[in-house]
Amino acid sequence: GISTQITDYILANYPRAELSIQDISDALHVSQSYMCRTFKRATGLTVKHYILVHRVTVAAGMLFGTSHSVAQIAEQTGFATVQAFRKAFREYYHMSPTQYKRICKAT
User: 107 and 64 in contact (C-beta within 8 Å)?
Assistant: First the structure.
């Protein structure tokens, strides 16, 4: 269904900082309102929130599994700025990316 198509598009394009609702709806040839409403009904999340959660989750894996810097990971996961990445990460994990990386190295 459309929710799977939306998810697939996000998974393929989340590293692009400029990824937007408009991009997704244009690519899938549906209206933004239909796409957002259908996705929210199917997943319980807004499209924007899903993109953010996916980016933060991938970033956490990279913090744990790579030696990349916080700035490199922010860029590679589609955050427009390091500050936006830090804010989103802290909201989701309740610690900074640097603190998370330190904890991962200690285990």
Answer: no
